[in-house]
Amino acid sequence: MDDVGANEPGAADGTRSPRLVGRKTVLRAALAATAAIPVALMGGPALARTLTAGGTAPGLTPPCDDGDDPTPEQIEGPYFKPRSPERTSLLEPGMPGTPLTVTGYVFGRACRPLTGVLLDFWQADTNGAYDNTGFRLRGHQYTGSQGSFALTTIVPGLYPGRTRHLHVKVQAPGRSVLTTQLYFPNEPRNTTDTIFDPRLVMTVRDAGGGREAAFDFVLDVPQDPGPGPTPTDTPPGGTWVVGLTYRAGDRVTYAGRAYTCLQPHTAQPGWEPPAVPALWRAA
Ligand SMILES: [Fe+2]
């Protein structure tokens, strides 16, 4: 492996914030829900669905809720190459590895989606090696009109000194570049990799022999917050129903018990209120 021992520099360069990750307020969840309706339609990328060995859900990917927490920066590392091909799939015939999709949205400071945002991904192969001569497992794409992106690739392998991660540069038109990394939950090395930042952990679940990950970026791009929910909006209530879109603060009953919605999402089978404490709190 040609990059063995090539640990990325800057592990203690102060790029990591000491702020602990935690559930942020949902004061503007209704606004976020308005902007992020496609998120709900896709099944809720911000949901923490991967359970730990102990059966407890990890912390949520920080939602875009209050406009003051852009996605943290991370070091670029030694393997970035400019002029990657434009493509949403990095898969190539015969490429070994566990299939991985990464989907999400790019928001500005007002939690409204940003279109035409460049996302340039690069990563190690399943053996932990980067292609530094060609463009294997490198590619860029742009967010569409809804601010969404979708990457098809493989789960990156481990290499010495680092936990499992993807590299990405994110740039809105005419704005500065955000260079960062995305991480996987429940990785043993997350606790020893000094570059790791829990705010950059994706929501990941197993699916069809592969893995589905989700992450929403928040760029430091000022935005008009736009119209909020109108007073005529009537929150859904009554009995919990699959397919209904709930907003933070909505109250339902399930199996005779009352629950309050904690974050916007569209109800799906398996997401019954008692089963997903990340979404519903017993009232
Ligand atoms: Fe890396």
Task: Tell me what the structure shows.
- With 283 residues, the protein is mainly beta.
- It folds into two domains: 29-218, Sandwich (Protocatechuate 3,4-Dioxygenase, subunit A), CATH 2.60.130.10; 245-282, no CATH class.
- It has two helices and 14 strands; from the N terminus they run H-H-E-E-E-E-E-E-E-E-E-E-E-E-E-E.
- It has helices at 29-35, 37-41; strands at residues 99-107, 118-122, 138-142, 148-154, 165-171, 177-183, 203-207, 210-214, 217-218, 245-246, 251-254, 257-261, 265-266, 280-282.
- Strands 1, 4, 7, 8 and 9 form a five-stranded mixed β-sheet that branches. A four-stranded antiparallel β-sheet has the order 3-2-5-6, with no helix packed on it. Strands 11-12-14 form a three-stranded antiparallel β-sheet, with no helix packed on it.
- The protein is globular, with a radius of gyration of 19 Å.
- Mean pLDDT is 78; it is low at 1-60 and 230-235.
- The site of fe (ii) ion has 6 residues, from strand 5.
- Pfam families: CBM_5_12, Dioxygenase_C.
Q: Summarize this, please?
A:
The protein is mainly beta and 283 residues long.
Looking at CATH, the homologous superfamily of the largest domain is Aromatic compound dioxygenase
Order of helices and strands: HHEEEEEEEEEEEEEE
CATH architecture of the largest domain: Sandwich
Give the DSSP E fraction (strand runs of 2 or more residues).
15-25%
Which structural class fits the helix and strand makeup?
Answer: mainly beta
Low-confidence runs of at least 5 consecutive residues: 1-60, 230-235
Helix content: under 10%
Task: Kindly report the CATH topology of the largest domain.
Answer: Protocatechuate 3,4-Dioxygenase, subunit A
Instruction: Name the bound molecules.
Output: fe (ii) ion
> How many β strands by DSSP?
14
Contiguous helical run count: 2
Q: What is the arithmetic mean of pLDDT?
A: 78
Pfam families: CBM_5_12 (PF02839), Dioxygenase_C (PF00775)
Biased composition (Low complexity): 53-64
Domain Chitin-binding type-3: 237-283
GO molecular function: carbohydrate binding; ferric iron binding; hydrolase activity, hydrolyzing O-glycosyl compounds; oxidoreductase activity, acting on single donors with incorporation of molecular oxygen, incorporation of two atoms of oxygen
